[in-house]
Design brief:
There is one protein chain. The protein is α/β, with parallel strands linked by helices. It contains 26 helices and 23 strands. It has an eight-stranded parallel β-sheet with strand order 2-10-9-8-7-5-4-3. It has an eight-stranded parallel β-sheet with strand order 21-20-17-16-15-14-13-22. Helix 12 (about 295-305) links the parallel strand 9 and strand 10 (about 310). Helix 22 (about 550-560) runs parallel beside helix 23 and helix 23 packs across helix 25 (about 620-630). The radius of gyration is 29 Å and the shape is elongated. It starts with a strand and ends with a strand.
Length: about 700
């Protein structure tokens, strides 16, 4: 993919000075008091069936003189960037005026881009030392993917992710055809709408082989610091950073003073350029804006004095005098320097989850992935979904978060359940409950189309569980690319064309192969790759299963060594599946396994969050722990038989931290150990291979020259 001609130029200018973006198109149009229905109709729409007054976007066709005059005045006042008059330029928004036909939408966007481009060319020709650029304005549409329009049915949506992507794709194609230099996804009140726009953009770049600069601008609706769909601005950044925008910022809703703390937060956490274009204060009782250009200039002064921004401009209520004053303000200040931001896995629900492992205490930073919204992890949850009792399922989800789940696993893989329908409905419902949706989701399915259904409903940055090499490299790369377009981290199962990895050697080999593909060929950051090297059940009575836990733990340490930055996860309940029904033994296995696996570098796992918090390793009954660890660590050939003998003496419902023996039993004498192994069964291999050097990802999509 090739960069556009202006790509490098724009990036360079951002480092040299604080740039200026134009003021509000809508309120500028309102200054033309004499325009009425005939101006909106023109010749093309003279006989249109629907009233058109207020559809500002079509003025690029019916009154291009007005739009060109507004663009030119903003450029004259010092704007480096002007936005196309296409805020409502999608088929979804134009449907309000019965102009949703693709021909009309394409005409609006291409004509708008051409008008703005012509104005920029004229001003650049006058002063080549100050080049001017066109931002293709991509508004949020008048629908929301994260909020139901029905109070009675919070899982209902009146538009789908695919419909929004399709609408944005037409708009993007038309704007690029008209000559825009930048794609600006703006006034984001719902991050999922923005993710749909970014998905369309990334897909378009991949298909066309070019990359334009992308600006992303969110909207904080009030002093809570959240978008309309409930995200904090750092959670918003975590959700969209995968698109690698050249610049990110905030616009609309608030005046400059109220916007300062949120722009400052973005300025600290974002490793790209940052901008702001606030309203001219807050609206008065008539919906107008009274703040003058000089007043706004003073409110914006802290942004430049504190080095928070690389670009400033204006939104609602800002006119030529506001932009002129802003241009005068920024000329005396240096642009913000992009900070060095630590590369780490950054997830989000309504709130950010920035995972920083403590290598000296991995159990302390372990991420609990709640297992109870998985049909394989909870019979109660499965029954609720099969019965269509989604409110009951929601209470199960809420309880997990209240009990300490950092991430919520959602799985619908059951023959009695329509996976796509159930996943869509449940994730939509979860989004409506802020006490649940504050945490990130793990979208879990062995069927990739079900995974996609979940991703299309979640505004936060999710984890996909899972993809693998089972169907070969091409299918693996295809699934990984889709996950990347959605901005998700991925769990990769240690599974290839030959089957599931059970041994230490196979786990390491398959994971290292997958890591190379994801990092070198797909472009994943190492920290967004999570391996599940397969937690397989021990204590089954089969000798070939005896080393399963040892192999997982040893593989965890080695995979993290040879795949820098990766994470390790797994379904912890699998380890003691053969002891279901005996609570003390099963839970002791979970606790001991996590202790040793975390010491080897395990980062997260699908667990019963409440139980793993209660069953701390140092609180497990010491006699019970000895038998459990003999099995886990394969310390003798008959460890399973000895475990079963001891388990038979325990009340099956007691806790591992408060063991209760059955009735009056004689003193327990275990069978002697057969072939005891006193050495460290978890020790790493003696001769470690060098850590591989991975080639940097080289995108086939190249930036435009103006980038």
């Amino acid at each position: 993919v090739q960069p556009t001609a202006t790509y490098g130029l724009i990036e360079k200018l951002f480092t040299e000075r604080i740039l200026v973006i134009d003021g509000a198109m809508g309120t500028s149009i309102q200054k033309y008091k004499d325009i009425d229905e005939p101006d909106f109709r023109g010749e093309r729409y003279a006989n249109h069936s629907h009233p058109l007054k207020g559809n500002n976007d079509i003025l690029v066709i019916t009154r291009p003189d007005i739009i060109s005059e507004i663009h030119s005045k903003f450029l004259e006042c010092g704007a480096d960037f002007i936005e196309t008059n296409t805020f409502s330029g999608t088929s979804i928004a134009q449907a309000d005026y019965e102009l949703q036909a693709e021909e009309e939408v394409r005409l609006i966007n291409q004509k708008a881009a051409e008008l703005a481009k012509e104005c920029c060319k004229k001003f650049t020709a006058k002063d080549p030392s100050k080049p001017r650029f066109v931002c293709g304005a991509i508004g949020p549409t008048n629908r929301t993917l994260s909020v139901s329009p029905s109070v009675e049915n919070p899982a209902f949506r009146n538009v789908t992710f695919d419909e929004v992507v399709s609408a944005y794709t037409v708009q993007i194609d038309s704007l690029v055809a008209g000559g825009v230099d930048v794609l600006l996804v703006e006034t984001i009140f719902d991050t999922l709408n923005a993710k749909a726009a970014l998905y369309a953009i990334e897909q378009y770049f991949a298909e066309k082989g070019i990359r334009l600069p992308v600006f992303v601008s969110g909207t904080i609706v009030d002093n809570s610091g959240r978008t309309l769909s409930g995200q904090t601005n750092e959670a918003f950044w975590n959700s969209v950073q995968h698109a690698k925008p050249l610049a990110i910022g905030l616009n609309c809703a608030l005046g400059a003073t109220d916007m300062i703390p949120y722009v400052e937060n973005l300025s600290k956490c974002c490793d790209c350029f940052v901008f702001a274009y606030p309203n001219a204060g807050l609206p008065n009782c008539m919906g107008g804006y009274d703040q003058t250009g000089k007043e706004m200039k003073e409110e914006l002064r802290p942004f430049v004095e504190r080095g928070l921004v690389n670009m400033l401009g204006g939104c609602c209520g800002t006119w030529y005098d506001h932009i002129e004053e802003i241009a005068d303000l920024v000329k005396d200040f240096e642009p913000r320097k992009i900070p060095t931001v630590e590369g780490k896995m950054r997830l989000s629900g309504l709130e950010p989850l920035n995972y920083t492992p403590d290598e000296k205490n991995m159990r302390g930073t372990f991420l609990n992935v709640g297992e109870r919204c998985n049909v394989a992890g909870s019979m109660m949850y499965k029954k609720a979904i099969v019965d269509g009792n989604y409110e009951k399922a929601l209470t199960i989800a809420l309880k997990q978060v209240q009990q300490g789940a950092d991430i919520l696993d959602i799985n619908m893989d059951d023959g009695l359940i329509d996976g796509v329908s159930a996943m869509t409905k449940f994730v939509n419902l979860l989004i409506s409950e802020p006490d649940v949706s504050k945490v990130p989701f793990m979208i879990d399915s062995s069927k990739f189309h079900v995974v996609e259904a979940g991703l299309k409903c979640a505004q936060g940055k999710c984890i996909v569980n899972s993809i693998s090499l089972k169907e070969g490299e091409e299918a693996f790369k295809h699934h990984a690319q889709i996950c990347k377009f959605h901005g998700a981290s991925v769990v990769v199962m240690a599974f290839d064309e030959e089957g599931q990895a059970a041994t230490f050697e196979d786990k390491v080999r398959i994971c290292q192969r997958a890591f190379r593909i994801l990092v070198e060929e797909v472009g994943f950051a190492g920290y967004d790759v999570i391996f599940d090297p397969n937690i397989l059940t021990v204590g089954t009575g089969l000798a070939e299963h005896n080393n399963y836990a040892v192999d997982f733990i040893r593989a965890t340490r080695e995979i993290k060594r040879v795949c820098p930055g990766c994470k390790i996860s797994g379904g912890v309940s699998n380890i003691a599946f053969s002891f279901r029904g005996n609570e003390a033994v099963r839970r002791a296995f979970h606790s001991a396994f996590l202790y040793h696996a975390c010491n080897a570098g395990m980062d997260m796992g699908i667990v019963n969050a409440a139980q793993v918090k209660a069953d701390a390793y140092d609180k497990i009954d010491k006699e019970l722990l000895g038998y459990v660890e003999d099995v886990l660590l394969n310390r003798c050939d008959n460890a399973t038989e000895r475990m079963l003998e001891f388990a038979a003496t325990l009340e099956p419902k007691c806790k591992p931290t408060a063991v209760v023996k059955k009735g009056v039993v004689p003193a327990f004498t275990p069978t002697p150990k057969v072939n005891p192994r006193d050495g460290d069964t978890l020790a790493p291999p003696e001769n470690l291979s060098p850590v591989p050097v991975y080639k940097p990802f080289c995108s086939a999509v190249q930036p435009t020259a103006t980038y």
